[in-house]
Amino acid sequence: MIHTYGDSHAYYTFVGVPGVVVHTLGPVTMRRISTGRTRKDRSLSYALSEAATEHVDDTVLQDAVAATALGPADLVIVSCGEGDVRCFLKPQLAHDHVTAEAYLPAMAARYVDRVAALDRRGAHTGVLSVPPPAPYERSWSIAWPPSQLNVPPAGGDAERAYFTRVLNYHLACACAARGLLYVDVHSRCADAEGLLIAELSDGGVHIVNPTGVQAALAALGML
Questions:
Q1: Domains of the chain in sequence order
Q2: pTM (2 d.p.)
Q3: Strand partners for 37
Q4: Would you say residue 23 has pLDDT above 60?
């Protein structure tokens, strides 16, 4: 059995793949998982002024995995990161006065460390690549209910595509170092500019055609 945990991509990416149980955690960011901390008011936005923000320990992923009856025949796949790239990463880099190349390796490593530390009861475990970003006009809509993830994307299309490639590179390296699977849907769903192919999407930011993730799982011998 395949169990997916994470943001909305943990659901949409696996639509149409048989034998998948989805455990959606809401719009959880990679940064939240990587730090193990969240704002006390559970707000989604990054706390750019950390000193003025009260945090609490966050166990949303650990609790969801612990509540699942897992065994050696199962596969756990964790999905986060698209929301980080779309909404939060560029403002965070500007606030910290750092480059993506300086910031993303540590975030990716901490995130994969958190996944590796989960009590999975022997289940195979992998990290889903961050999907290709959708072009600006498909990344948000004034018709959607207002939320902190329904805002104009932070960064242009080429910039977000670059952030995604850098982040996925470091996720793949961290997975290899820790013996976890890296489930690469990005390379199967990105166009020449590194953006999400419209025909594979839901018209927005999600992959809904299952062929990419099925091919990725088959390449890993997990399907």
A1: 2-219 (3.40.50.1110)
A2: 0.90
A3: 57
A4: yes
